């Protein structure tokens, strides 16, 4: 199958997890993440020989748990619509 035939609108968006040094130097990539179409996200990092894998309600939550800042590789996804609650 050719990838041109696939509907990529539901593909996850990738982001890097960056750590900024205190001395205004260049940021370091400390991990990677995927934002899923439903708004949730997964991420993993490896610091000091320990791997941390997270699954959270949002990319911001993933970044916070990894003590890093997200930098989007793909287009940052828009948030999914909230479910309708009855009156």
Describe the structure.
By secondary structure, this protein is mostly beta strands. The chain is built from 1 helix and 5 strands; from the N terminus they run ββββαβ. It has one helix spanning 59-65, and strands at 13-19, 28-35, 41-47, 50-56, 69-72. A 5-stranded antiparallel beta sheet has the order 4-3-2-1-5. The radius of gyration is 15 Å and the shape is globular. The N and C termini lie far apart (46 Å). The model has no long low-confidence stretch (mean pLDDT 86).
Key phrases:
single chain, mainly beta, 5-stranded antiparallel β-sheet, 5 strands, globular
List the helices and strands and how they pair.
Layout: E1 13-19, E2 28-35, E3 41-47, E4 50-56, H1 59-65, E5 69-72
Antiparallel strand pairs: 1-2, 1-5, 2-3, 3-4
In short, what is this structure?
With 87 residues, this protein is mainly β. The chain has one helix spanning 59-65, and strands spanning 13-19, 28-35, 41-47, 50-56, 69-72.
């Amino acid at each position: 199958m050719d990838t041109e035939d696939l509907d990529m609108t539901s593909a996850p968006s990738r982001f890097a997890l960056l750590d900024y040094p205190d001395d205004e130097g260049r940021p370091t990539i400390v991990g990677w993440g995927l934002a899923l179409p439903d708004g949730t996200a997964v991420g993993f990092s490896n610091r000091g020989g320990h791997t941390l894998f997270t699954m959270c309600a949002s990319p911001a939550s993933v970044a916070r748990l990894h003590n890093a800042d997200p930098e989007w590789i793909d287009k940052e996804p828009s948030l999914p619509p909230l479910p309708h609650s009855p009156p």
